[in-house]
Design a protein that fits this description.
By secondary structure, the protein is α/β, with parallel strands linked by helices. The protein has helices at 7-24, 84-102; strands at residues 2-3, 33-36, 49-54, 60-62, 66-80, 114-126, 129-146. The longest helix has 19 residues, at 84-102.
């Protein structure tokens, strides 16, 4: 499927569908907040939370005035826990659950041509705060567009 919409509209459609998929997934029912592009102090963020972080990418120009856009996002899961070991484990488990949820429908209901996992980050402590842990998964959402 070759899209002919403006790129900003394609991005908005993908973001809205990602958010819908994550919010409706019963496996992620304990997530208290999904954040995209908002500046939030990590210390005040209700957790567990998913922070959707857009990443840079380079369009792949094809013949016939078309390009593949692998629109990349990181999905960072934050967990607060007084026990760092439990927090690390919970953050990693939830990030892997995000992975499983996003690969269930590799077209996001027809919004993209493919959902491609690219990276899994194990859990880490957040800076000097041993009570906040994070883990992440990264995906490319492929769209072919007439340019």
């Amino acid at each position: 499927m070759i899209r002919q919409k403006p790129l900003k509209d394609i991005h908005k459609e993908i973001r809205a569908k990602i958010r819908e998929v994550l919010e409706q997934a019963p496996e992620l029912g304990e997530i208290k907040r999904i954040v995209y592009g908002e500046k939030v102090r990590v210390g005040t963020l209700q957790t567990p939370a998913i922070w959707i972080v857009p990443e840079s990418y380079a369009p792949n120009l094809l013949g016939g005035h078309t390009a593949d856009h692998d629109i990349r996002f990181n999905f960072v899961v934050f967990v607060k826990d007084p026990d760092p070991e439990q927090g690390l484990e919970k953050a990693h488990d939830l990030a892997l659950t995000v992975y499983d949820v996003l690969v269930q429908d590799r077209t996001l209901g027809g919004v993209v041509s493919d959902v491609r996992p690219t990276q899994v980050d194990p859990a880490y402590e957040m800076g000097n705060n041993t009570q906040v842990c994070w883990s992440a998964v990264q995906f490319d959402f492929r769209v072919k567009r007439r340019e």
